Amino acid sequence: MTERTNQEWIAALQGAQADAAIADLRMVLLRGLRYGMTSYRVTEADLEDFVQEALVKVLDNLPSFRGEARFTTWAQKVAARVALSELRRRRWRDVSLQDLMAEYEDSGFTPAVLTDQGPDPAQIAQRTLMMEKIQRMIAEELTDKQRQAMMAVMQGGMPLQEAAQRMGTNRNALYKLLHDARQRLQKRMLREGLTPDEVLAMFADN
Predict the structure, then answer these.
(1) What confidence tens digit (pLDDT) does each residue in 124-136 have?
(2) What DSSP line would sit under 158-175, residue for residue?
(3) Number of structural domains the chain divides into
């Protein structure tokens, strides 16, 4: 494969011999993903799919390439984002929002710090009381949609885009929903004599 400068890559991908340049770039991206995805459970067919989607994104975004890094480095970052986004989507493919809500309602929000055996019993008891108070605030202050969004994104770790699709909305609207939910909780905390800093300090590592 011919070595190219950044300018040569752009020119080749937009020129009469674009097919040859695309084939070369495909090999670069495939090689990079094979190396970078060794710790993930992916097949060669998965890698091929990631590369095909990445090629489309790279070609669509050529005007945004500013030349601050090597072109192939930039393109490989695009491919890595495509691959990781797809793997995150697959992780949540068989998990419904109803499942997350049912889990929350059955067991509540129990952060890892409450199962940590390091702190003394007094600290654990204090933190448990704090969490019970926060759960009550969530139940009383937030709408069903706000609770659903918080459990999916903030408790379950579901990607924002995935949660938005599941809830029949878009990323910006979901971000606004979460922002409003946090604002309502903060106001309730203040009314009950708590501040977000105090809550965070309670669960800070010692």
Answers:
(1) 676 677 777 777 8
(2) --HHHHHHHTTS-HHHHH
(3) 2
